[in-house]
């Protein structure tokens, strides 16, 4: 069973992306080519820029094989 990383802010997501990219021995240039985005965008994303486009973020996650999931809060039944 794989454990996920709780993502509460852009900085945490950026660290996860950088760590995964480096584990896969990918340079920013190579990853940019894989997902059709600029090196500048990837650098800003990895550094936690909060205004990055969700569509572009999803392209990066897909290129790295990172699955994004969301869990709704548990609500106590009456």
From TrEMBL:
SMART domains: HTH_XRE. Pfam families: HTH_31. SUPFAM superfamilies: lambda repressor-like DNA-binding domains. Gene3D superfamilies: lambda repressor-like DNA-binding domains. Residues 17-75 form the HTH cro/C1-type domain. CDD domains: HTH_XRE. This is Helix-turn-helix domain-containing protein. It comes from Halomonas mongoliensis.
């Amino acid at each position: 069973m794989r454990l996920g990383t709780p993502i509460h802010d852009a900085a945490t997501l950026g660290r996860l992306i950088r760590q995964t990219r480096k584990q896969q021995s990918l340079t920013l240039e190579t990853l940019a080519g894989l997902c059709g985005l600029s090196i500048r965008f990837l650098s800003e994303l990895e550094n936690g820029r909060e205004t990055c486009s969700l569509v572009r973020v999803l392209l990066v996650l897909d290129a790295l094989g990172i699955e994004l999931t969301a869990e709704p809060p548990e609500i106590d039944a009456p």
